[in-house]
Write a structure and sequence with these properties.
By secondary structure, the protein is α/β, with parallel strands linked by helices. It contains 10 helices and 9 strands. A hairpin with an 8-residue loop joins strand 7 and strand 8.
Length: 280
């Protein structure tokens, strides 16, 4: 399917698997199943904001590394206080495939992402939370509309069909309400504005000026993606940013497992939806 020779056991080359499956199933079935060729020179920058994620950091990294795509992995520690910082300091010294950056005070997810995006050099950039709520094996599916030339940005959605842990009804209602309000202002028909999984062509995310330090990132980036004009390239004229949405699974955690988001973050999101609809 996809290939990254250095990460693939001998005799199990995804690119030959891809050719074999194409031979068996044909082009259109493969496309629908998300089996497609990823160019050799494609690099996906995975930006991971990290705050007090000692219990999950090793496993999420294992899952990210297991995705058979060439990756630049950028971890931004947002001044964790639970020992995560020491873990990441060791990783920075020992694990050369990682870019690890430290904030010297806690600034929030949005600020951590801004830092991470500055380091991104891949053609595509994805946001990956450091808990285990989202599944990195879904990256190839999420990259597909961009690699097929149909999209500049792809949002996951927890509300349109993949499996999800059954959890807080009121939170999902809150999410749907925030998405509705955001859509009213942006005129995008998203179903899950607050989702973590957002993939951007790098020029898009590095061409947007972001300000929100905390969870205002999600409504802010959505408002700015909706307005973003992709500059002309070769003979192609400037055009509005094309956004796609695909189902993603969601293994939500509860408060006893470390869930941190609360009603104040909901209010902050409300404010940001209106604020970034009206001004930059
Ligand atoms: N809560 C929080 N997360 C941060 C901060 N800085 C970076 N992050 C990271 O941002 C990502 C998202 O944070 P989460 O607290 O998981 O937010 P969420 O997924 O919307 O909400 P829950 O997991 O339900 O609490 C995680 O990888 C965090 O480690 C911060 O200041 N506060
Ligand atoms: Mg989370």
């Amino acid at each position: 399917m996809i290939h990254e020779p250095t990460e693939t056991p001998a005799g199990d080359d995804p690119s030959s698997r891809h050719v074999m499956l194409h031979g068996l199933l044909g082009e259109s079935v493969c496309r629908r199943l998300g089996i497609y060729h990823i160019p050799d020179d494609l690099v996906l920058s995975v930006v991971i904001p990290v705050y007090n994620e000692r219990d999950t950091i090793h496993q999420i990294l294992r899952q990210v590394r297991a995705v058979p795509v060439k990756k630049q992995i950028i971890l931004v520690d947002d001044c964790s206080k639970d020992g995560t910082r020491d873990v990441l300091e060791r990783m920075r010294a020992e694990e050369t495939d990682l870019t690890v950056v430290f904030h010297d005070r806690n600034r929030g997810k949005g600020a951590a992402l801004r830092t991470g995006f500055r380091y991104a050099t891949g053609q595509l950039v994805i946001v990956q939370d450091a808990d285990l709520e989202y599944d990195p094996s879904e990256y190839p599916k999420l990259m597909q509309p961009i690699l097929e030339g149909k999209a500049d940005v792809v949002y996951g959605s927890r509300f349109i069909g993949e499996s999800h842990r059954v959890l807080y009804f009121r939170h999902s209602l809150g999410n749907r309400f925030l998405t509705l309000l955001s859509n009213i202002f942006t005129n995008l028909n998203l179903t899950d504005m607050e989702v973590c999984y957002k993939v951007f062509r790098r020029e898009v995310i590095q061409g947007i000026r972001l300000r929100s330090d905390r969870f205002g990132f999600e409504p802010e980036v959505t408002a700015k993606v909706a307005r973003f004009v992709v500059p002309p390239l070769g003979g192609r004229p400037a055009r509005k940013c094309r956004v796609y949405e695909l189902p993603v699974s969601y293994n939500g955690r509860d408060y006893s497992e470390g869930k941190k988001i609360g009603w104040k973050d909901g209010l902050q999101a409300l404010y940001c939806i209106v604020r970034y609809a009206l001004a930059d």
